[in-house]
Every structure is written in structure tokens, then in C-alpha cells.
Amino acid sequence: MKNFLKYFCLFLIFLLPLTTNAKFIGEVFFLDNGSNDLLITPINNTDRARVFYQREPRELIWELSVQKNGPLIALIANVDDSKPLLNSAVYIININDIPLKMHRLTPDKFNFSLNIDISQNGDIIFTNHSIFREAQPERKGIYLIPHHELKKASPKIRAFPKITLLKETDARRVGWSPNGKQIAYDTIDSIYIFNLRTKRSSKVHQGGRYPAFSPDGSKLAFAHYDLGEDEPREIRVISLITPGRPDIFKLKEHSSFNYLKWSPDGKFLVYSVFVKSHGDRIFAIPFNGGPHEEILTIDPGNDRIKSIRSFDWAPSAYAVEPINRLTTLWGKIKTENTK
Q1: Could you read off the pLDDT of 193-220 as tens digits, one per residue?
Q2: Residues 6 or more apart whose Cβ sits within 8 Å of residue 200
Q3: What local confidence, expressed as pLDDT, does residue 18 receive?
Q4: What torsion, rounded to 10 degrees, do the Cα atoms 189, 145, 68, 173 define?
Q5: Do 62 and 85 touch, CB atoms closer than 8 A?
Q6: Nearest to 137 by CA among 145, 149, 128, 150
Q7: Domain assignment of residue 85, given as a range
């Protein structure tokens, strides 16, 4: 009997195709263009989306970053959505708090924050482009709020954590390396990596934006812009270990590029674009080759979600699981029925 099962499994391996269709599982936090609340949904079924945090009447959340394997969500939101310009601040939510509450981390002089990222140990970086308003603005650049400073935030007494300028630069988007020792950022026309120990930046690519470290820190992905082009036509991935030619992935036709990230297991590149007549769409590209697969789709009959403006993986999000196959990515026999 044992020999029969052994040879039967070998037979299945040869019978199955070399490629494996995949289906993302787990959950994501996301921002909806309709409600501007913070929602959570299973990756493969947005009909089951639910409100995770209902914003206060005057709050307008427009950027988020979720701590990997941790309870913190870092946010950028308008302090008062009746004044949409030069009115943003950095906030934090601890998903273990009952009730949930957004805690403000930055004072008025940081009034135009563009992008944010939180590391695995809870350190927060954000870009600031403050312009003079009521208070003397801080300089343009990349700022750090260490995790041990977060407990000092107390809006009731207007107490804020210590905020440190890491790099004075015209940075747009920022992202931590997995080990927390480097920061990738882009300016209007180039991508750089900032070393926290040396406090020095190295240019990685001319004509790139939206940098994203792979989960193992060995690669950097970014959207490549040809000279004179307003929109990227491809994603490039370079090795940070051994120099060589980049891997190139062509993008779907689009009107504007929104953002780029890796799947938690590093097997997929995930990007969002705005497509005329279709709105915001999110695609996953297998890094080792394969067609683009649209994810986080919204059923036309779903009147609760307009479109997903921004998202990040919830701590429960993990890897991918094959569908319509008898074996999993890890080689075990899949026992559920396939249709």
C-alpha cells in the first residue's frame, strides 16, 4: 500500500503542469475612495470587507503602513478635512486598543506629509514637505519617529514624540529595508538608498520612482520612467547583492501609476494603476514569470466600496495558495474539491 501511494504521488507530479495557478489568501487593510474609512477585507473576497476603524467626521485618512507581525498601523490623515491642503499629520493606531483610537504623532509644523512606512520593530519614517502656515515649518526631508518614542504621544496635553530629521531632501516615497538598516526613497527623477549607520545616500537608478525592498532585502523593485515620459511602462527589479541586468516586467496600459509593493512571500510584484473607464485596478505579477493577475477586484454589485485607493498587508496575510490543482506550492496533497 505504501509503495502504491508513493508511485501514485510521483505519477501526479509528472501529470501536473509545471506552472501553478495561485490565489492570494489572508487579509489587507485598505482605504476606500468612497468612505475614507479604514477597512479590512479578505484578499480574495472584497464582498466580505468590513469597516475596521470609522474615522472621525473631520479626519481624512489617505496613506497607511501596517507593521509586519505587529499591532501598529501608521497613517497620514488630514487634521481637518474642511482644509484639505497643508493640513496633514502622522497618526498611529494600535489594533489591540479597545476602543480603537488614532493617536496624533506630529505637531502643526509638519503640515504636509506625503508618505509613511513603519518597520517591523515599530520605527516610523515619513516624508515632509511643509510650507509656512501658522507655525514655522520643518525642512523638507525624511523624518524618523523611533518606536520607543511612541508612548510619549498624548494629544490631550499636546505632547509629541521626538522626531528626528534623517535626511534633508526632496523625497516623495520612503520604504524600510527588512532589517531596518536602510531606507529606499525617490525624488522627482531618481531612486536612492539611505544607510542609517553612515547617514549617507547612494543613487540606485536614474529615472525611477516607487522603490520597494523585497521581503528578504536582496532586491529592489521600482517603476521605471523613460526620459520625457509622465507615466512608467515597466517595473524593474535589481539585485542588491550581485550587480547585473535588471529583471523587467511590462505594465498594463494605464492613465496613472499609484504604487508598488511585494507580496509578503516575495513571489509576486503587486502594483496599482488608474485606468480610464475602469478606475483603480491592482495587479500581481509572478516574479518567476507568468501573466498579470488582477486581485482585490470589486464586484459591480458591491455598493459599499467605490475603489481601493491604498492598501497594505494585514498581519494575517501570507504567501499564496494554488487553486484548481491537486498539490500545493509546498508539495502536499490538496484534499479540497476543485471546480
Answers
A1: 999 999 999 999 988 899 999 999 999 9
A2: 194
A3: 41
A4: -10
A5: no
A6: 128
A7: 22-322
